[in-house]
Amino acid sequence: MTKFVCLWIHLIGAAAIFGSFFYLHFVDGGRSGPDQEYFIQKNKRLVNFALVLVFLSGLILFYLKTKALAQAGLPLSMHLSMVISLKFIFLVILGALVMMESNFRKQGQVRGSQTLRWAVLILVIVTFLLGISLRGH
């Protein structure tokens, strides 16, 4: 039951990160005025909260997986170790990109903000595909 709940929290958190940046890039366009600062802060809080949820639920899922493998007397596969390592590195990079994008947007650097939004969207998709490759493990 814990694995099922953690998996759904992990997926919903990843979807929130992707959805937030998708909305920001394709729907919002470029707000201006007093609404912009408020919206940026709300978006940054949502994404940071989702990043923490994704990290903690992923950590719990990894712990449960290694515990199950250890109880069965099976070694940890190289694929699982590599994918988890890459996902952790990508999560750290995502956190940095989210902060940088927010700062660019606050400063009015539209070009830099759009580039970072594309980078976040692509990185979330790659991370999601890496996670799908773990389905059989």
Give an account of the 3D structure:
It is a single chain. The chain is mainly alpha-helical. It has one domain. Helices cover about 85% and strands about 0% of the residues. The chain has four helices and no strands. It has helices spanning about 1-30, 35-70, 80-105, 110-130. Helix 1 packs antiparallel against helix 4 (about 110-130). The two termini are about 20 Å apart. The model has no long low-confidence stretch (mean pLDDT about 85).
- List low-confidence stretches: none
Mean pLDDT: 83
**Proportion in β-strands:** under 5%
Number of helices: 4
> How many structural units, i.e. domains?
1
Through-space gap between termini:
18 Å
Structural class determined from secondary elements: mainly alpha
Net shape: elongated
Radius of gyration based on Cα positions:
17 Å
Fraction of residues in helix: over 70%
List how many beta strands DSSP finds.
0
Sketch the major β-sheet.
none
Q: Can you write the helix and strand succession as a string?
A: HHHH
